[in-house]
Records
---
Amino acid sequence: MFKKILIANRGEIACRVIKTARQMGIKTVAIYSDADRNALHVRMADEAIHIGPPPANESYIVIDKVMDAVRQSGAEAVHPGYGFLSENSKFAEALAAEGVAFIGPPVGAIEKMGDKITSKKIAQEAGVSTVPGYMGLIEDAEDAVKISNEVGYPVMIKASAGGGGKGMRIAWNDTEAREGFQSSKNEAANSFGDDRIFIEKFVTQPRHIEIQVLCDSHGNGVYLHERECSIQRRNQKVVEEAPSPFLDEKTRAAMGAQSLALAHAVGYASAGTVEFIVDGERNFYFLEMNTRLQVEHPVTELITGVDLVEQMIRVAYGEVLSLKQEDMKINGWAIENRLYAEDPYRGFLPSIGRLTRYRPPEEVAGATAVVRNDTGVYEGGEISMYYDPMIAKLCTWAPTRLEAIEEMRVALDSFEVEGIGHNLPFLSAVMDHPIFVAGDMTTAFIEEQYPDGFEGATLEEGALRRIAASCAAMHRVAEIRRTRVSGRMDNHERKVGDDWNVAVQGMSFDVVVSAYPGGANVSFGDGTVMKVTSDWTPGQSLAMIDVDGTPLVLKVGKVSGGFRIRSRGADLKVHVRTPRQAELAALMPEKVPADTSKMLLCPMPGLIVSVAVAVGDEVQEGQALCTVEAMKMENILRAERKSTVTKINAGAGDSLAVDDVIMEFE
């Protein structure tokens, strides 16, 4: 077996590979840019080598620099993770020339499957059904519009060398096709160094389901069933699960057989994924083959018990695959939620900064439940603008899908992240959404269910009552502590009252708190009584509470006169007041936010790529105003209404912070 491998990647996946290599007794080498000098993967590896400045195109994807690190380290093999150089045939060739093993498929398979145009042609020849589209090269935006009309809207504009949602746009008309072509081309060039674009029919009401395959270099192969990846935003997967709640055994077997046939057709060896679009009738169409480890591989590992990284290493070493198809049983259900440094309250825009608090839920590996968190960050670390915004993958497993969902709900509520914007509230809301719970989602789930963006979950009255009861009990504990600290409880002359008013999410509850050791009975005005038990003490940021025998996890922050509570996707201000204070509070006027309707504010830290208008221009609602690049993705900012541009404060090449004014209108 290899004695030392280099991981040509960073972040969560580098840490993931290091864990398996350590279990196998293999030493690891990390590479890092200036921005990653103190990164977790650097700390975890046995040794680390610096390879350049923060931008990936000056460090992580520069083959010569990575090869220098391989030579310096004396590594016998390289695991590329995903993204970066993982599907770069030139990198695999460079390693082969040095006599270093590539922990991935053969060069020929990478070239054939890594190019989406070529892969579709091969899939067709192998008898795999494919989505209609134009596989030739597209010269310019006008050519893209012409082809889109021939294929028929809606169309998907995709980078031939793309992946991870980069270089993808859906166009519903000529304007979007024109703009999408240019944005896809730019993103593809920046992310992959290859700006070739192709166009295919966009299948409406689709589900995104993929098959995991594993093959060795001796002609053996198995498929490890499917993953459902339908909940996506901008073609970037957010929630994945295995197996799919939609497939039946017949469709699963057919998709698995076609996936293996395609893998064998290109002489595939290593772990790979064949992605399909599946319609409502369970007709499936080949999208692409990812010749690498997928981000969402943990859910497959959890339902099969197979360590895919270990198998990749063994295959690269030349071992015969020990797995047989009849052994690939589905055990239970697994769900993965991707934690992104994206602010759901600002249109999921990237958020950067220091993680002032990062406390994942405790990992569990039991017979009836598993909680797993694959991460590449730590408390006090920094989220950089240079790389993908994903900072962790939270996974749960249980015997059934509903049990796995419930485990995920509790795990999400127990996950503490502060200092940056993040999508934990959104993930919690998805786990409670009836469409997801029923398993009826499509890839349009987010845009259909949150057409105006995510503004936090709205909890039903039963949930609000549980939170109100909990906060009333917590507030009483805090008040007792405060009076003791201030000395006002001398001789028991001053006592904390039992009557309170709790205001939350527009509702008001008059309650009476009857305390006892370790908890309290909270009585509501309608006669309802809730029994609240908890060992929470003031200052703790996480409250583990039991309300009438049901667990409730609350993220707790302090606000004047109460708490900031985050639970199940809701971000709530809960005010706990005496009856008299509640009367006075009702008379207070609400603060009106500042008027920024005549300004275009930068929604995220980023770089202005282009400005599409000039001072004096009249703009229409929906018209593109400028393009901002952040975390390798281009974002087109559009006019919200008809107006005239009166001032432009930034131009192409300018770096802006959140809420910097880009332009102003009359």
Note: The chain has six domains: 4-103, 106-129+205-325, 132-201, 332-457, 461-585, 599-665.
---
Amino acid sequence: MSILPPVPASRRRPDTRGSSPSVTVLAIVADPAVKELLTRVLRFEQLHMTEDFAEGLALASVEVPDVAFIDLGIGDGAGLTLVHHLKAVVPDVNIYALAGRKHLDAAASAVSLGGTGLLMLPLSGDDVLSAIWGIKQRIVERSERERLERVSAMSARATGWTARVAEIADAEDRQGAAQQLVELLVEVTGALGAAVYLAGDGPRELVLGAASPSLEGAPQKGSEKQILESFAAPRRLLALPLASRNVSAGYALLLEGEVAPISATGGADPPIDGIIRLLATVAATALAMLAERERAERFGATIKDPTSSAYSFAYYVDVAGREISRARRYGRRFAIVTAVAEALEGVEPCSPTELADRLLETAHDTDVLARVDENEFHLLLPETSGLGVHACRRRIMRSGDRESSQDALLVGGAAFPHDGQDLGKLLRVARLRAEASKTSVVHRLDPEQTTVPDLLEALVWETASAAPARQTSAVRPLELGVEEADALVHAVVGDALRGGGATIVVTHHPELSLGAAARSAVAQLSDDTATLHAVDLRNVPGCERIEALVVIAEHGAYALLARSEDGVLRGAHAADPLLADVLAERLGRAAGVRVFG
């Protein structure tokens, strides 16, 4: 169903910014030459022409001209009187008096009576166009000024609306907050009615929080699909997700009237659509806070999650806060790992209890595991650097039933202080990295491709067949000369070592290779914090001309795999932690070296 659809172009207010608007022109002239000139020069404007004063006044009251040309020489000099009468009929009209030399005195009086200017006869096209252009500029300026005034007024109202939405977090419960939100949405959007559905206990379950009298028949609960497709869609209700980046608190359903500001702007000024979406985001956060408060009240002050062996999120936040204070004061390190069991097609995710047990198997005694959501857990790792996060992620991915659960588990981490110096930033970075791992090329590789040449062929095929990806971890083709490759290795290794320790796995042989460049970079930049594994693959079948580099650093990972042909490296590379792990492990296996403990 459509969510906040744009209004058709035919209903939108025309935007004159940066354009030349058409103007309505009234000409009261008798001279045939002047008539012909105005008709030709003003052919793109709305021109109304007459010789009669009474008819001119009648046209002015009906057409409301933007500009008028009045010949002061017709009607035995009565044109001067017409200037006064025309300003009374249309106060905003711009009047240009047309006068010959013998009517100069009358022309001066016309300007004093409110005329915009004087054009001398015989008239030229440049005179007319200059007059019209000046008027158009004033119209555009006036339109822009009015637009800015509307936007300013709307922004002021939006500030008040946002504050009122934030205040729903102080409601006694989510139902009370939902009722306040219904009333506010009806006020803001002009909708005929609204209903707010809250996120239920089950995945994608919605529970009715409050509804306007016009939507009293709304079902009390149901799945998201049932509510949106069976109830909202047949009634042509607009569905507004109450969600922020990591929070989904439900939906607001709006019954649109004949004239509803929700879509009446369609991107024009003022931007009410964007304001409504902002209110929805603020409402999602407020409702999530209420849900957490209700949950804490429901389970009491316990520090344990009632459905798993993990701690409660409230206890986790308290421990993390103390850990951040100690880290700042004493220059210590700690890290956060996020694990999300996602329901993928054909793959059954872990239950919360199973996932908690799986994570605890990989954790140390000092680590703290907390359940954040139905299928999301956070692991606090004291005295752990970014390299420790990579090691923890590898332990988690190797644990459990590999065939049934690994692809459904998303893992990401963040370390203090490189990735953030407050809990909120660290949680966001860890969650984003967990989500990014879902698109890793590793999930599309054949598990049977265990050799390094097989992996190179798969990565090259990935760069040739996959659609262009926006993710920074996407696999990209590589074709570099020897000097360019040497510069790339120095840049990657140098960037890694600036963050502290790093694990580097690189192919090496006596001739010019990536290994020589990596050794040089480590010798120049490292203070014994880097672990370098130089592997010789010359005796491994199919790897005689293979060049590879894996860098796993505090703040990320990088993998490069290519084949050297006539002094040119051709292959693929990516800033993908999962791929870096796979490539490092297979390089070590081929060379008989254990890269990871």
Note: The two ends are 52 Å apart (CA to CA).
